[in-house]
Amino acid sequence: MTSDVLPAVAVASAAGNAHKPHLEQRPGRLTAFVFFAVLATGLLFSAYSLMQDVDDVGSAITTWTPFLLLGVALLIALGFEFVNGFHDTANAVATVIYTHSLPPHFAVVWSGCFNFLGVLLSSGAVAFGIIALLPVELILQVGSSAGFAMVFALLIAAILWNLGTWWLGLPASSSHTLIGSIIGVGVANALMHGRDGTSGVDWGQATKVGYSLLLSPLIGFACAALLLLALRLLVKNRALYKAPKGKAPPPWWIRGLLILTCTGVSFAHGSNDGQKGMGLIMLILVGTLPMAYALNRTMPADQAVQFAAVAEVTQQALVKSAPQPAPADPRQVLSDYVRSKQASPELIPALAALTGSIGQEVKGYGAFSRVPAQAMGNVRNDMYLTSEAIRLMDKDDVGRFDADTRGKLQAFKRKIDDATKFIPLWVKIAVAIALGLGTMVGWKRIVVTVGEKIGKTHLTYAQGASAETVAMLTIGAADLYGLPVSTTHVLSSGVAGTMAANGSGLQWKTIRNLLMAWVLTLPAAILLSASLYWLLTRLF
Prior knowledge:
Layout: H1 2-17, H2 29-57, H3 65-88, H4 90-98, H5 104-120, H6 125-131, H7 136-140, H8 145-167, H9 174-192, H10 203-234, H11 252-288, H12 290-293, H13 301-321, H14 330-340, H15 347-365, H16 373-396, H17 403-420, H18 425-438, H19 444-452, H20 461-480, H21 487-502, H22 508-539
Helix pairs in contact: 2-18, 3-8, 3-11, 3-18, 4-5, 4-11, 4-19, 4-20, 5-11, 5-18, 6-11, 8-9, 8-22, 9-22, 10-20, 10-21, 11-18, 11-20, 13-15, 13-17, 14-15, 14-16, 15-16, 16-17, 20-21
GO molecular function: phosphate transmembrane transporter activity; symporter activity
InterPro entries: Phos_transporter
Keywords: Cell membrane, Membrane, Phosphate transport, Symport, Transmembrane, Transmembrane helix, Transport
């Protein structure tokens, strides 16, 4: 009896594996050589560009301590992007691998290249949207021990959670993780200074980001299911709705569609997720080397003249709106408002005074590149504080300004953002290399989960194309509006949506694990980063 059963099981197993891709092939020596060569080139290029920027400032180096801290912080930040790369690779390549549209290793390299391009061509809006979640007082003193504790805590927490979920084969969200880590640092910082924990986070910005993370998997599920149903009505080619036969590639037009969507998701992932690392690296650079990175020194001199002129007319409009004496310490008034969100009668006069002071400073120097190294950090902090105050006042309608004054305030804020919110090319290249190379390592665990463990049947061509198309468009739209979304949640929920629409059935064990990761990621990251921040502030 046993002898009859075993062959039957073996045959069934062989038949079930006949259509599965071969994922165990190891890369050759040439591939490994190219990988490490690109990695070394990226690190050397980053180090060279960094030293070149410092040399251009002409500031004398008295101690190497900031550079050591900077090196460690940069490696951790790039490590986060590297882990993000292989953690999220499956979002782009699982469908083309399991439909045999591309060989596994070629698909991974292809995805890595377009992740690289996505980072290079990104706008930067998402990067600074992420930074806006951090407590303003920590951003203003990012070069202090508390600032370094903040950066190290949130990055290490994000890396640890991403590695843990990757090890378990769970497609968890890197965006979700990073935002949870940022919130954890903000809450811990507020509690450690005797304030209510909720005051340490900009909950308006956090809610905005939270909605994008909450809605993205629901959009992925519903839209992918509807797209598959629409395809069934409009396209009658039966081959589109069948699982691959053996390991033969699909018809050329289906294959082209799947490769196109894989390419689009890879590019969109690079453009969206790569910016998170950029924003954190800029925060690190501003904290450790303000003389080189606090202000955009590449801006032409005429921009400084325009900046001063806009500052002057904005100050005049504010004085006209609230003609009362400026407080003795306008910076403290603005800092209190940004931290507490409670406007005082001195707020508008303080904003007018600081606006005028910034304008006079920039006018006196004549160009951003001529701001002395020792003054660079203070000028930037004043600019950042003013920009945040304007943003919050506009959001809460503080001051009830007329249209002309409001327009001048927004024009001044844009000028400030142009001077402070910039990303050097070498930072983009470093993040692009880290994310691109990260896609080529450790991708199998998540690929298997997405390709085999969400639905009860093998992924069809139409299902793969529907899920990838929805993921590509959703991530691209989020990037356009400067919102971080979870590539992982959009794609995995899209695959689940197509399985449900197709009547294939879902593997509820996997779905429960995905939901658990989705629910637990935020509180786990908050707790982990808060604990690390408390510990690091005690050590530094």
